[in-house]
Automatic annotation (TrEMBL), chain A:
Residue ranges crossing the lipid bilayer per the database entry: 12-31, 99-122, 134-157, 169-189, 271-292
tRNA processing is among the record's keywords: no
Membrane protein topology class: Multi-pass membrane protein
This protein's name: ABC transporter permease
Family stated for the protein in its record: Belongs to the binding-protein-dependent transport system permease family.
InterPro entries: BPD_transp_1_N, MetI-like, MetI-like_sf
Alphabetical UniProt keywords: Cell membrane, Membrane, Transmembrane, Transmembrane helix, Transport
SUPFAM superfamilies: MetI-like
Domain ABC transmembrane type-1: 95-296
Principal location: membrane
Organism for this UniProt entry: Roseibium polysiphoniae
TrEMBL record, chain B:
Record CDD domains: ABC_NikE_OppD_transporters
Highest taxon of the lineage: Bacteria
Topology of this chain in the membrane: Peripheral membrane protein
GO MF annotation: an example: ATP binding
InterPro entries referenced in this protein's UniProt entry, alphabetically: AAA+_ATPase, ABC_Ni/Peptide_Import, ABC_transporter-like_ATP-bd, Oligopep_ABC_C, P-loop_NTPase
SUPFAM superfamilies: P-loop containing nucleoside triphosphate hydrolases
Protein's UniProt name: ABC transporter ATP-binding protein
Family: Belongs to the ABC transporter superfamily.
Protein species of origin: Roseibium polysiphoniae
Keywords for the protein's UniProt record, in alphabetical order: ATP-binding, Cell membrane, Membrane, Nucleotide-binding, Transport
Subcellular location: Cell inner membrane
UniProt feature coiled coil, ranges: none
Occurrences of domain ABC transporter (ranges): 7-258
Main location, first listed in the record: membrane
Length: 313, 327
């Protein structure tokens, strides 16, 4: 992989982060005064002004923006308006829980989505294919919160098999992971299927057959490396969606991750915390996109190495 | 059809089950033979069953396709009876394919060297290292410029002609007895086309391969083939040694194909096209399939389909063969 390729991707990642930080900064400050939200209704103007000054909200928005960036570069993400704790520390303390939930759900989705997608493609238009794809449509049409609530009703309230909230044991993970991973897995299955069907019809698959390659060799060495390319792209792009769904899922199951923290911080207009979480989410998406780009280049030589000059096709 | 023939195809019928349960027959009756080291040209317009015949010979028919009648005997072995595993083995060692679209016919995520080495390794039990070095030799042999570099490159980095050379290297990697070149040069520039044809002829001599040349280009046929089998609407309608076929085509369809060929020794006005089209596979006319397009057709042609009858040096399926010196 060429360094220029990597360099451009990194530059793009940095610019994206800057845009996100800027956008979030202005949007949050244009949507209302946090002081009014935080303090009781009957405080006097002097107190309000005191807090305004304390948090730097008395300056113009551009000065605030400048100061915010200066602080960012020194690793200072601000403090929570609520309890004066360091915003970054607050978020980092919750991050592992969300990462655990998200990654497990991602693993769950891939573990089921890819094999079922491949099998459905191989058995295209059979009863099996129709069954799996029907299930997939059901899986991704069902809203997360609805599936989560159904599970709680069934497994917690009726059967009393699984805990409905918290994150203490691995039993607590089952329902949130299933809730978060199902729709993602269903989409992975569909993308894998259509990508695989496309690849199986390519002329090079016939060439492999003409060579006398056996079925497993054609599947694993000839078809899958090609079929995986668009699937990886989609999975990378959908990681953002996964994080979005995680916010909802965490709230449904009282999972103590950054999703729940975000909901309460937004309600309180806790600017520093909200900003810090949104930056984390943006960073995750940027990193996953970067990972996809790198993976993509590694998997697809047409991306990694350009056309030889003068080679006419 | 002599018993010593490398390949004898006899009354081959290929059926394909369509979605709705209907069965269509892309090949309705193909008979021809091919001697060791010889070249047979399979000619005809698109949709006449040439490619399907070749796929049937090598066991590469689509899932819904099958040989429903006839025999395909390669070296004394009836291929129509073989199971898929046996056919795979035959494709590894005895029958090789060169397809038209080499750029898409090669796997985009595997190096040229890998793809050729794989064919070597599938044929014989050699180390991967050995297979790779064989691949390099083969690339060199097929005239790939700078083979040491190309062996590590991917199809998209090569030109169409180079890809076709790689495809040929891959095909001869198994040292086949029979090479099927299905429109192998159609997609290439004329100069490259000539080089590839010369290469195939070269390799044919070197490996002693027989070659089936599928083409709609009768100009190529004259240069390459020993014998010609003309297919129309799923049937072989005329078979003859190449010189005879050119000098005196007996089937009106063959004559029509030859007449539609531009030749430097003729004036331009005499180029004639055959009016009409090949009948669609699910709407064959009764009687001779060529009848509706044939100027000589009579009532007999419209009611009974002519059988392929052996004639001097070849065979013919026509009620009203052309005689004398036509054209």
């Amino acid at each position: 992989m060429t360094l220029t390729y990597l360099g451009w991707k990194l530059l793009r990642a940095v610019v994206t982060m800057w845009l996100v930080v800027t956008f979030v900064f202005f949007i949050l400050r244009l949507t209302g005064d946090p002081v009014a939200q935080l303090l009781p209704d009957d405080v006097d103007q002097v107190t309000i002004d005191y807090y305004r000054k304390l948090w730097g909200l008395d300056q113009t928005i551009f000065v605030q923006y400048w100061n915010y960036f200066l602080a960012l570069f020194q690793g200072d993400f601000g403090v929570s308006f609520r309890d004066n704790q360091d915003a970054l520390q607050l978020v980092l303390a919750r991050l592992p829980k969300t990462a655990l939930l998200g990654l497990t759900a991602l693993g769950f989705a891939l573990l089921f989505g890819i094999p079922f997608g491949v099998l459905a493609a191989l058995k295209k238009n059979t009863a099996f294919d129709r069954f799996v794809m029907g299930l997939a449509v059901f899986g991704f049409s069902m809203p997360n919160f609805f599936l989560g609530i159904l599970l709680i009703l069934g497994f917690s309230l009726q059967l009393r098999m699984l805990p409905s909230s918290g994150s203490e044991t691995w039993l607590h993970m089952i329902m949130p992971v299933f809730t978060l991973g199902t729709s993602f897995g269903a989409q992975v299955a569909r993308y894998t299927r259509s990508s695989m069907i496309d690849v199986l019809n390519r002329p090079y698959m016939r060439t492999a057959d003409a060579k006398g390659a056996e079925t497993s060799r054609r599947l694993y060495l000839h078809a899958l490396p090609n079929a995986a390319i668009p699937v990886v792209t989609i999975v990378g792009l959908k990681v953002g969606e996964l994080i979005g769904s995680a916010v909802i899922t965490e709230n449904v199951f009282a999972w103590p991750g950054i999703g729940r923290l975000l909901t309460s911080a937004v309600a309180m207009r806790d600017l520093a915390v909200v900003q810090c979480i949104l930056m984390m989410i943006a960073l995750t998406m940027v990193l996953s996109n970067l990972a996809v780009d790198l993976l993509y280049g590694w998997m697809d030589p047409r991306v990694r190495v350009g056309n030889r000059e003068g080679a006419n096709r | 059809m002599s018993t010593s023939s490398l390949l004898a195809v006899d009354s081959l019928v290929v059926s394909i089950k369509a979605r709705g349960g209907d069965v269509v027959y892309p090949v309705r009756s193909a008979s021809f033979a091919l001697e060791r080291g010889q070249t047979l040209a399979l000619v005809g317009e698109s949709g006449c069953g040439k490619s399907m015949t070749c796929l049937a010979i090598s066991g590469l028919l689509p899932k819904r396709g099958a040989i429903s009648h006839g025999r395909v005997v390669l070296d004394g072995l009836d291929l129509a009876d073989q199971n898929p595993k046996a056919m795979r083995n035959i494709r590894r060692k005895q029958i090789a394919f060169v397809f038209q679209d080499a750029v898409n016919g090669l796997n985009p995520v595997k190096t040229i060297g890998w793809q050729i080495a794989e064919a070597v390794a599938l044929r014989e039990d050699v180390s991967w290292h050995r297979a790779k070095s064989r691949a390099l030799d083969l690339l060199d042999r097929v005239g790939m410029p700078d083979p040491k570099t190309r062996v590590r490159e991917f199809p998209h980095q090569l030109s169409g002609g180079m890809n076709q050379r790689a495809m040929i290297a891959l095909a001869v990697a198994g040292q086949p007895k029979l090479l099927i070149a299905d429109e192998a040069t159609t997609a290439l520039d004329v100069t490259i086309q000539a080089q590839i044809l010369a290469l195939i002829a070269d390799l044919q001599r070197e490996f002693g391969m027989a070659v089936i040349f599928v083409t709609h280009d009768l100009g190529l046929v004259a240069e390459m083939a020993d014998a010609v089998a003309v297919m129309y609407a799923g049937r072989v309608v005329e078979r003859a040694p190449v010189a005879e076929l050119y000098a005196a085509p007996k089937h009106p369809y063959t004559a029509g194909l030859l007449n539609s060929l531009p030749r430097v020794d003729r004036r331009r006005e005499t180029i004639q096209v055959i009016e009409g089209q090949v009948p669609p596979i699910n709407a064959m006319p009764s009687g001779c399939a060529f009848g509706p397009r044939c100027g000589l057709a009579t009532d007999e042609c419209r009611t009974t389909s002519p059988n392929l009858v052996l004639a001097s040096g070849g065979a013919l399926a026509c009620h009203h063969p052309l005689t004398g010196t036509p054209l």
